[in-house]
Amino acid sequence: MSTFATSPAEDTSSSAQPPVGPLDITVSRADLLRELTAAQSVVERKTTIPILSNFLFEASDDRLTITATDLDQSLRTSCPAKVKKPGACTVPARKLYDYIRLLPEGEISIKLQDNHWVQIRSGRSNTKMVGMARANFPQVPEFPAVGATKIAASALRSMVAKTIFAISSEESRYTLNGALLVLKPESMAMVATDGHRLAHIERLGESLSGVTGEKKTLIPRKALGELSSLLANTTAADESADFLEFADDDTTLFFRMGGRVLTSRKLTGQFPNYEAVLPRDNNKFVIVRTEDLMGALQRVAQFADERSGAIKIRLEQNELRISSQSTDSGESEDIIETPYNYDPLMVGFNSSYLIDFLKAVGNTPEVRLEFKDSQSAGQMRPEDGNEDQKYRYILMPMRI
Fold first, then answer.
1. What whole-number distance in Å separates Cα of residue 239 and Cα of residue 216?
2. How far, CA to CA in Å, does 192 sit from each of 32, 208, 362, 399?
3. Contact 131, 54 (CB under 8 A)
4. Where do the domains of the chain lie, and which CATH numbers do they carry?
5. Is 323:304 a contact under the CB 8 Å cutoff?
6. What is the mean pLDDT of residues 78-106?
7. 293 phi and psi, to 5 degrees?
8. Nearby residues of 371 by Cβ (< 8 Å), 6 or more positions away
9. What is the DSSP secondary structure assignment for residue 351, as one 8-state letter?
């Protein structure tokens, strides 16, 4: 079953007239390489449709626009250029990117020749690449003229980083192959789950124009990866680097930041009711230094069963014990002294899932682990007192 609602042929066509003709431009290597780097990750390495291995170059009005697409998503970006002749061409993406990286700094001239060949000259280097007809390149949807929402780039970057690792990689569970973005006028949240764990982050005190009520959007994992790169790589000199514009239509998600536009097909289907699984009565808790817990987990995980990654957490009077054992590698135990004054408790977890959470909280000095009993989901959160950002991680226990 296709994950997406429409076929490639149904893409919205561009409203502006694309430049046509024998493209002839000069562009700086630094500008070109920066934009090729941004676009090349969208290009399919192995595709049955040859044109998708190419960049589309379009030149007019002293700008070079570069487009890459794999039909599920696209990235359009641009840089300044001296346009001697406006026009368009397609160039093998990987080959061009690798070649431009090897050129010295300076001006590069790019010129379309007969039979879709593209000449690239820089200093004493003169190369010709075999392109393909511009007409074969798929139409890429245009950013909607109305209805966009401005989102703080740093806030979105943090939310993606704290949830993307919990997205399911099982293709059969396609409603879990993305993260749910929930926008409200004064807050935004993101949640991801693979059925074994759930990461949920909510930011309060936001001011989102154009959002009324509640807007829920499921963003595919691959698009989140590209979005993360887009948020990380936009230059600080770009005045619009503080905000990202988000919009959607019936089939497509649009993200615009600076001069770059990322599009992605929407995931269809209903994201599960995550609020129903958020623990309500985990009344036993322990607060641990993040660094101590990470060190102990990484050491003990070396001796966990390779397939399950299972480790035991045992809470006793003012003590947290982490242990593992396997017939192949042996056994290990680490003890962390920390205040704990509830009934003793033992629970099993996948060590990799715990380590993922600790990596996501980064430099937070302490984390809080909350439990109900050994059969119920555990809840973890940073102990940072940040009232504007609430991050929690729900983890199903393992039988050990």
1. 28
2. 35, 22, 19, 23
3. yes
4. 17-136 (3.10.150.10), 149-274 (3.10.150.10), 279-395 (3.10.150.10)
5. no
6. 96
7. -65, -40
8. 282, 284, 285, 315, 345, 347, 378, 379
9. H
Distance CA 255, CA 263 (A): 6
Q: What is the pLDDT of residue 240?
A: 54
Q: pLDDT, tens digit, for every residue of 161-211?
A: 999 999 988 777 767 889 999 999 999 999 999 999 999 999 998 888 778
| Identity of the residue numbered 272 | P
> Could you read off the pLDDT of 333-390 as tens digits, one per residue?
999 999 999 999 999 999 999 999 999 998 899 999 999 999 999 999 999 877 788 9
Contact between 324 and 301 under an 8 Å Cβ cutoff? The reply is yes
Tokens describing residue 278: 């958020």
pLDDT of residue 396: 95
User: Would strands 319-326 and 378-382 be described as parallel, antiparallel, or unpaired?
Assistant: unpaired
Within 8 A by CB and 6+ apart from 363, the residues are none
Q: Reduce the DSSP state of residue 38 to 3 states and report it.
A: helix
Tokens 């044109």 sit at which residue?
Answer: 51
Report the percent of the chain where pLDDT is more than 90.
Answer: 74
Query: Of the candidates 220, 245, 224, which has an alpha carbon nearest to the alpha carbon of residue 5?
Result: 220
